[in-house]
């Protein structure tokens, strides 16, 4: 069921770059990415985690390459996955060259940390030769020494100056297939840095609040920081940094995009917090349905409301809806129209059946 959003976000126009077979920027969908936390040299474990991250809905996956054995392990890893791999490089330029030659679709580097310009030029040449894009990754925790001395401490202006310096290095070598990030663990610093940068460059921006923390606190910080920028129309790809399972980063990233009507994937559940009026156990029902419907990738809206106060109104705007009633008699809505009464003990199986049926119909259309 198509529900017109109250507000449409007007995205800032950016250049389009290629990360493998995924286009980032312009009018292309905002991509979601995560990063493996396995040892890259453990090829089997890394492949397994990449596949889990992709299954959750990631478009890109970043893999750390801290040493030669890791960067060369990418050559085997990319043979067994079908999602673009970004090699995470911090200091040694040879790791970037090895990663590009091993099949990395993108190199995450901070040119200022690579060393002299000859080394940077060698990395750019390897990227060109192997059709690898680059992410300029500026971080408040690793700014260039002279910039930090100039500004005394990390601030939005310092991050932007670092980004512009690194942009010029790439442009001077006729390299334009890159995106940029200006991350900090401070929400306000990150937001302001991205806002300033977006006014003076049209390269695609990778959004994130770095080192955001545990699942709960990190999800909140990232939702505020990344969400605020997305509301401004800023951002072309996002990564939610959590001290948790990387798969959860993808879950939160997609939920942020879904909440802003920027991307729809899978079942979007609208549910009440529950109260004494509920005709069934809303919280338990939602948890069960999230698990049972996790395999559906087609965009579907589902309302689970415990009583008739807001239930009919929400159900009128969703593909499938359930409103709690007295004595276990709950009302099922299909495409906003009352369909039939469903007893509580049959409700979950009935909802799953109807959501799967609707997903099949939409997929075939």
Spell out the blueprint of helices and strands:
Elements: E1 17-19, E2 22-24, E3 31-35, H1 43-55, E4 60-64, H2 68-77, E5 85-88, H3 93-101, E6 106-109, H4 111-114, H5 117-129, E7 133-139, H6 145-151, H7 156-172, E8 178-183, H8 187-200, E9 206-207, H9 215-231, E10 237-239, H10 246-259, E11 267-271, H11 282-292, E12 300-305, H12 311-315, E13 320-323, E14 329-334, E15 337-343, H13 344-364
Parallel strand pairs: 3-4, 3-10, 4-5, 5-6, 6-7, 7-8, 9-10, 11-12, 12-13
Antiparallel strand pairs: 1-2, 13-14, 14-15
Helix pairs in contact: 1-2, 2-3, 3-5, 6-7, 7-8, 8-9, 9-10
Sum up the structure in keywords.
15 strands; 365 residues; alpha/beta; eight-stranded parallel beta sheet; 2 domains; Sulfite Reductase Hemoprotein, domain 1; 13 helices; TIM Barrel
Your description of this structure?
- There is one protein chain.
- The protein has about 375 residues and is an alpha/beta fold.
- The protein folds into 2 domains: about 15-260, Alpha-Beta Barrel (TIM Barrel), CATH 3.20.20.20; about 265-365, Sulfite Reductase Hemoprotein, domain 1.
- Helix content is about 40%, strand content about 20%.
- It has helices at about 45-55, 70-75, 95-100, 110-115, 115-130, 145-150, 155-170, 185-200, 215-230, 245-260, 280-290, 310-315, 345-365, and strands at about 15-20, 20-25, 30-35, 60-65, 85-90, 105-110, 135-140, 180-185, 205, 235-240, 265-270, 300-305, 320-325, 330-335, 335-345.
- It has an 8-stranded parallel β-sheet with strand order 8-7-6-5-4-3-10-9. The protein has a 5-stranded mixed β-sheet with strand order 11-12-13-14-15. Strands 1-2 form a two-stranded antiparallel ribbon.
- It is elongated, with a radius of gyration of 23 Å.
- The two termini are about 15 Å apart.
């Amino acid at each position: 069921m198509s529900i017109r959003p109250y507000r449409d976000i007007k995205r800032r126009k950016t250049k389009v770059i290629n990360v493998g077979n995924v286009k980032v920027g312009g009018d292309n969908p905002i991509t979601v990415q995560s990063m493996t936390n396995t040892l890259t040299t453990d090829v089997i474990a890394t492949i397994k985690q990449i596949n889990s991250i992709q299954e959750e809905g990631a478009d890109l996956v970043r893999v750390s390459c801290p040493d030669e054995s890791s960067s060369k392990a990418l050559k085997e890893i990319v043979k067994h996955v079908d999602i673009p791999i970004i090699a995470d490089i911090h200091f040694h330029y040879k790791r970037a060259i090895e990663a590009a030659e091993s099949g990395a679709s993108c190199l995450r580097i901070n040119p200022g940390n690579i060393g002299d310009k000859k080394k940077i030029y060698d990395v750019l040449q390897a990227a060109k030769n192997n059709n690898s894009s680059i992410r300029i990754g500026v971080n408040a925790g690793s700014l260039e020494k002279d910039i930090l001395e100039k500004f005394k401490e990390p601030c939005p202006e310092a991050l932007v100056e670092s980004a512009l310096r690194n942009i010029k290095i790439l442009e001077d070598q006729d390299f334009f297939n890159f995106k940029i990030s200006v991350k900090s663990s401070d929400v306000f610093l990150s937001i302001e840095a991205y806002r300033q940068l977006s006014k003076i460059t049209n390269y695609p921006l990778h959004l994130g609040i770095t080192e955001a923390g545990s699942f709960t606190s990190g999800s909140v910080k990232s939702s505020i920081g990344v969400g605020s920028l997305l509301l401004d129309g800023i951002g072309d790809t996002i990564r939610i940094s959590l001290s948790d399972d990387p798969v959860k980063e993808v879950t939160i990233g997609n939920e942020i995009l879904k909440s802003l009507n920027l991307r729809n994937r899978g079942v979007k559940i609208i549910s009440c917090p529950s109260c004494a009026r509920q005709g069934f156990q809303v919280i338990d029902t939602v948890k069960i349905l999230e698990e049972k419907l996790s395999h559906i990738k087609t965009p579907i809206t589902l309302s689970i409301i415990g009583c008739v106060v807001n239930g009919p109104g929400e159900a009128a705007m969703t593909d499938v809806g359930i409103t709690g009633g007295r004595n276990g008699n709950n009302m099922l809505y299909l495409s906003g129209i009352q369909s039939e009464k469903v007893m509580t003990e049959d409700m979950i199986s009935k909802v799953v059946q109807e959501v799967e049926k609707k997903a099949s119909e939409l997929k075939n259309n």
